[in-house]
Amino acid sequence: xMLLALLFLLTLLPAGSxxxxxxxxxxxxxxxxxxxxxxxxxxxxxxxxxxxxxxxxRHDRKYWCKQTGSRCVTLxxxxxxxxxxxxxxxxxxxxxxxNFQINISELGLGDSGTxxxxxxxxxxxxxxxxxxxxxxAPPVPEAAELFYVKLRSTWTVSCSFGKDTADIRKYLCKxxxxxxxxxxxxxxxxxxxxxxxxxxxxEETPGSFSITMTQMDWEDTGLYYCGxxxxxxxxxxxxxxxxVYEDKNFPKLKTTVTGKTGSSATFECLxxxxxxxxxxxxxxxxxxxxxxxxxDNSGNVKYNYEGRVAMxxxxxxxxxxxxxxxxxxxxxxxxxxxxNELKEQQSSTELKVVExxxxxxxxxxxxxxxxxRVDLTCSYPCQYYSYEKYWCKWNNTGCLMLPxxxxxxxxPAASCNASTRTAVLSFDPVxxxxxxxxxxxxxxxxxxxxxxxxxxxxxAGELRGSAGEL
Length: 470
Known about the structure:
The chain is mostly beta strands and 470 residues long. It has helices at residues 2-12, 25-28, 55-59, and strands at residues 36-40, 45-50, 62-68, 71-77, 80-81, 89-94, 99-104, 113-119, 126-135, 145-150, 155-160, 170-176, 179-185, 198-202, 208-213, 222-230, 234-245, 256-260, 265-270, 280-285, 291-296, 309-314, 319-324, 333-339, 347-354, 365-369, 374-379, 388-395, 398-401, 413-417, 422-427, 436-444, 447-459. The chain contains 3 helices and 33 strands.
């Protein structure tokens, strides 16, 4: 009876709750290629088969064979071409692009049938089944565009249907048994399972748009259609065949971050620059479309986020850390890391803000008179006793770490009073140039934790308030 109850409860679970629990074929057989290849008698076809770029796969034998009963007869392989096919079939390996290419020319009716492209030994290694159809004359169906996407990475596709479709509804849908399930469209309709992780963006060319989908999971493997109009009724569409595979070297980032009201939240973005001029953007996803930019690596910060958000680059571990301070309930939502280079490095994270008291405490606004001594204080709990504490001065391009007092450097200094568990930033004397935002924070092994923002205002005249002066 208990087993029946458990099965009943499992049937009530929403589809989205099963994400990532049941790896499909991709987990055990990660070779991918076209489902069907269409050609014309006397013509040629070219297609690719993809494989994970492990050291073993890079150097393993690649092959193309024809299924004949229980056997698969090799037509071309690494260093081999079967008699009768020499001069009209070739196999070219592109390990840096994670695929090998098959080219067949002078197509005959005998080139139709069921084939396999694969690695290793025929029938024993990794393989993918392909159906080849050779027609006597054109036209032939348009081939689906193939996408070989790493688990947990981001998939991006551009779709263009001409200026005549500029004012027509744009969409992405996923093929299922009973039709094509809407994922996102230009009428701001988004499938609940894809909230916060899919973005439809119009491009400069009329009738063109792009789709970006983050946190790719096993269940995202399948056939998609991007189009203009209504799928299956009117308009135009393009078939997209997406295959998700696992690259164990691809980093796993948090998909959800939780912070307390008044405290801070820390986000990590992937960053492996190809050139120094690469752009990094952090933005907030909008259900009505688009992503509202908050900060970028060029020093642009949205006006109502000044003093609240900072970007720290960590070239050693190829990440960028974003810290958002002074959390409020309205900060909840999905935040995206975006780049103009490697699209797979883009990612999204959901921020949840819960009620509670920040662990770091101190005056958030301090006024002081130029020439006086001022101490900015930041009290921390026992849980942070072993963490590294820091003070930094915020600016549009980051937060400049300030020297510690025991180093004997002049100017602002940070020290920690172990008995009272308070980190103190001292100005003696404070100047008008010291005015601005200062952050107190903790980190461990170069990983940033909680932070607190303090605004210091310095006046040249009489002091009206001295909440932080000792």
